[in-house]
Amino acid sequence: MTSGGGRAESIVDLVGETPAVPLRRVVAGLPYTVLAKLEFLNPGGSVKDRIGVTMIADAERDGRLAPGGTIVEATSGNTGVGLALVAAVRGYRLIFVIPDKMSTEKIRLLRAYGARVVVTPSGVPPDHPMSHYSVARRLAAETPGAYYPNQYANPGNAEAHYRTTGPEIARQLGDGPGAVVGTIGTGGTMSGVGRYLKERRPGVRVVAVDPVGSVLASAFRTGSPGTAAPYLVEGIGEDMVPKSIDFRALDEVVQVGDRESFLMARRLAREEGLFAGGSSGAAVAGALKWLADRPLPEGATILVILPDSGDRYLSKFYSDDWMREKGFLDAGATAGELLRRKAATPALVAAEPTTVVREAIARLHAHGVSQLPVLRGSENLGTVSEEEVLRRSLDDATVLDRAVVHVLGPPLPEVGSDAALGELLRALREQRAVLVRDRGSGAPVGVLTRHDVVGILSEEGAHRAV
Question: Can 48 be counted among the known catalytic residues?
């Protein structure tokens, strides 16, 4: 490894010795020095570069990986990149198995390194034949000359951080009380760092951050992993307990949710100039949650590990559209509130079953809408639309003088007035409009169209920009 702008023999020699910089705006008001260790400045863009170097070197040394061999690994993306850096220099072939919840950018990045990438379904149990763990094991067994690092059980995972990351953090923390905070997935980073610090700086607290939905926090606290639930932040957390985790190296585990992880990552970019991934947002959000109880004396130094770069999440949480679809932005913009902000038309323009088609068409034109819900009291019977009326009237001109029940289309999908923006956008993905019901009384209170929602959000964005 080299530093200080010196000459390196290969890209592999540039892994490690990442800097730590103080956070300021996102930690304003805390009586601590909070440092961010920028692991995304590793050449492959993540902390996983470190284990790629170590696991391959160990396998070469003991003969598990021979020249011209193939590396097969189950990865959420970053470990694959770390392995690919070394493979490119040493001439190995690559097969990576990645769950389909991971970003498109990661899959394209692995392919850019020349890897064959196999995408498997998310949400299946770890022992399912189609899990990325099982598929990677099978491909390794079927491929001549294959080496399966298996980061989830490889001792080199934690050992890489014991040898490199731990000593770096000990120097960066300085003397006195302190803590290191980082996320856990395979557990290698925090197990290796924690073991190093406990041997040499036992007063330093080691705090791991786990996403809500992962089983690791439960396993740490109770000894039982419990049941996993879906979550969106990538590269951390697990649905099983990897052998590479040593819970004895940890003092505490804090859990954070997807929304707070993604919003903090976006804050790091906008307020600190640190373009980092969702796991980095989780690490900082978890650190702030832990520090809220003032567990250390004033003036202590806390180092937070930022695992990877934001450039592999541009299509996800750095996209406002994706964040809104998932309900993570404009959390207060419920369907009822959007109805109140409609300016062009009344919130509810509807027809009754006995309304004549000609009159319903006049209402459509008067209010500039293309379809009306047909309601009998609170009952959502269907819709009358210009398109359906035109189709029917081409065959029978008298349809204009009949009741709208003769030209009914399917009823609009419904959401409650307290539906968050993400739920509303999911409903509008399938239909052009939705009927909104008051969550208390159940009465229909309005209709929202795709055009309404886009217009309201665009206007809101313009006001924020000004």
Answer: yes
